[in-house]
Amino acid sequence: NAGVTQTPKFQVLKTGQSMTLQCAQDMNHEYMSWYRQDPGMGLRLIHYSVGAGITDQGEVPNGYNVSRSTTEDFPLRLLSAAPSQTSVYFCASSYSKRTNQPQHFGDGTRLSIL
Amino acid sequence: GESVGLHLPTLSVQEGDNSIINCAYSNSASDYFIWYKQESGKGPQFIIDIRSNMDKRQGQRVTVLLNKTVKHLSLQIAATQPGDSAVYFCAEKGSSSASKIIFGSGTRLSIRP
After folding, report:
1. pLDDT tens across A51-75, in order?
2. B43-59: string of b/e by CB count within 10 Å (b at 16+)?
3. Which of B13, B45, B55, B91 is the most buried (most CB within 10 A)?
């Protein structure tokens, strides 16, 4: 049971490049979410999904797209990378958003935009 | 807007002593609270949670206390060990199914030998 798996662990991009951060979970969780973590700040929600085919915006969605074609996968796309998107990105999942349960987190993708 | 915050950004504790990490929340409608531990280079790891119908919950070496009157949450770690060194986050969630989890900025716990 791998839990939440994120790839890649590290990435350096140039301004304007696009890329996809991968996230997969093997726990059959309905709810998946993406956060970014910046120094001195708490985790901020980018996008989330309550099930396959359903996504919604969090508090900082601009510059990012998501899709949820399967229960297991929830990729995050940077459309045109900007230096302000330099951050550590975490994917998380939980059984359901309807019930109060803790989320399981991946180990993050450290992204630098030059 | 609603926010969750921490009183102390860093906490240094003697090994073997008890640690207390505090958190203030501002959304009186929040009814679910979680503590996470984040070690360097890792994602947050769930420690313990508490619902608003409780004021205390205990786990293995950890206790969470909830004071709804002053909107305060604390995490107590008994007999602190070197492996407890990490950043600790509190998080809160509102009562509706549409509400999102809001995280505090974290407290770094360091252990003195």
Report:
1. 999 999 998 999 999 999 999 999 9
2. bbebbbbbebeeeeeee
3. B91
